[in-house]
Amino acid sequence: MWVPGVGATLTYDIAAPAVIAWQIAAAGRAGGEALDATLDGTPVGITEVAGSGGPLGGRTHLVACGPGQLVVTYTSNGPSPAPRPAAPTGLDRIVAMRPSRYCPSDRLGGYAARYRRADELATVRAIVADVHHSLTYDAAATGPTTDAIDTLLAGRGVCRDYAHLTAALCRAVGVPARVAAVYAPGLDPMDFHLVAETALGDEWLVWDATRLAPRQSLVRVATGRDAADVAFGTVLSGTAVLVDMAVTAVTDGDLPADDHEAVVELP
């Protein structure tokens, strides 16, 4: 049985007093973790935003600090309590069908119709396979304003673009879809990773059109309609520039094999 060890170190140059929110802690972790911040080497207090846990356990943490170099470090080396994910509710399905900032599914209905198959699972598999084969992974081809249609036209992108296009096309053919920010053991280059989830039957199934890491080893961080909901860092006020980031995701055994066709749920 593999046990994940995950973590991240984020370094910011703070030019003016700032308030920053992070979603970098693994969802649902009960122990074996630490989250610390220092400003020019001096510890700074971190608070967990009340009510941020939600049904999927995603957590938001907040720091307020003055000018200097801020370093935030998160580590977790224990297994996450992972009960079977809750079945999609009626509200979940409605929210996951709405167009969103990076997933303008309402503009893709005609194009997405080509993916319709005899059942929803076959439809989703067709979408994921086509996104995988149609896009080229290219970090230089995407930016903070790139949405699913931009990615479709460019034929290039990074994990968030693959996930956005997958989710948008699924919504466009009537399949509720959302995204999940995860730690991904086996990912190369290592980074925060974004994948898509679809509501099929009484399950949320996870899909990764990049096929860069086995889905069975993913560790959920945050869940939402698109990257705007699951951003790892948000500067709420002040002036802060991210100058360095290191992400770690490893296991204590061999990674599971994944053909990216099988049905997989993300805890």
Element-level helix/strand string? EEEEEEHHHEHEHEEEEHE
Q: Which CATH C-level class of the largest domain is it?
A: Alpha Beta
Query: What is the CATH fold-level name of the largest domain?
Result: C8orf32 fold
**What's the mean pLDDT score?**
93
- Kindly name the structural category: alpha+beta
What is the end-to-end distance?
15 Å
- Corresponding CATH architecture of the largest domain: Roll
Question: Which residues form runs of ≥5 with pLDDT under 50?
Answer: none
Helix share bin: 10-25%
What does the overall shape look like? Answer: globular
Nearest-angstrom radius of gyration?
18 Å
Report the portion of residues in β strands.
35-45%
Number of domains: 2
Number of strands: 13
* Main sheet summary: 7 strands, antiparallel
The number of helical segments is: 6
Provide structural commentary.
With 267 residues, the protein is an alpha+beta fold. The chain folds into two domains: 4-81 and 233-250, Immunoglobulin-like, CATH 2.60.40; 90-225, C8orf32 fold (Roll), CATH 3.10.620.30. 19% of the residues lie in helices and 35% in strands. The protein has six helices and 13 strands. The strands form three sheets. Strands 1, 2, 3, 4, 5, 6 and 13 form a seven-stranded antiparallel beta sheet that branches. Helix 3 (120-134) runs antiparallel to helix 5 (159-172) and helix 4 (148-154) packs across helix 5. The longest helix has 15 residues, at 120-134.
Give the tags.
267 residues, alpha+beta, Immunoglobulin-like, 2 domains, 7-stranded antiparallel sheet, 4-stranded antiparallel sheet, 6 helices, 13 strands, globular
